[in-house]
Specification:
The chain is α+β, with helices and mostly antiparallel strands. Helices cover about 35% and strands about 20% of the residues. It has a six-stranded antiparallel sheet with strand order 6-5-4-3-7-8, with helices on one face.
Amino acid sequence: MKPMNILLTVMVFALILPSLLFGQPTYGSYLEQESSPFRQFYGGNYIDLLSRQPISGSYLEPEHSPFGRFHGGTYFENIKRVLYRPIDGWVVVQMVTLPSFQPEHVTGIFEKDERYFVFSVRSTIHLYRYQTVQYMEQGQETIIHSPDEPDLAAAQRKEIKKLKQSLPKKIDDVKIVFHKAPLPRELFDVIHKTWRAILRRTRYGEHNSGLDGTRYHFMVFESGTGEMSGQTWSPSPGTINDRSVQLGYLLEEYAIGTNTAVTEKAIRALCDTIITMIYKEIGRK
């Protein structure tokens, strides 16, 4: 055998030998995920990669790194400043909802003095408009040029002025709608277990987004692990992500307290459905 062929054979054997001896990588051998942009602190968790190939959009996607080029900037900071204003406890479960053209909102559970509360906070305006003003002033976004407005720069200034007049001058003056309701510890345990299971499915895959839809950011805090977070864009009906979003909206209704159909039994039933779907996905009974 020629020396070059011998070298190639050795290189190939060196690449496949670890797999032959040890099989799949062990837990903890993957990169650790970064925390949500809506975090209370930057904690971590391990990306739980399953052996099967994902259906497009069927898994939550890991959040952006706080040290990356994109981490939400002013927009995410405004959301945290507005939506978390009335929360006076430690958030342990949450779903942040960012519609393309409607006001943003957050729902979840916070702990205070060893008691648990379901909460819902909604902005009364679309907070992304503040980001739009900033982008337009920096020239990163421009209006669609119209024949009726031959001077594009003048039209841009006019639109910026119009946008600013539609917004409170200070972000802290944005009005919100806040609801909360006490949550029994037993029900919290069920929801927390489900949220942990949802977040442990987080994995990298095909990024899904669009111009018209909603992005959902999930987070759970687990003692000993820290914060786990992931996101999804307008999940397909009937998927685990879709059921997870439904659970978030169900918690919001529970916090508001006006929908008599939203009971502890209904929440438990949806949690059981999600856990069953996840167990079936990984082949566990």
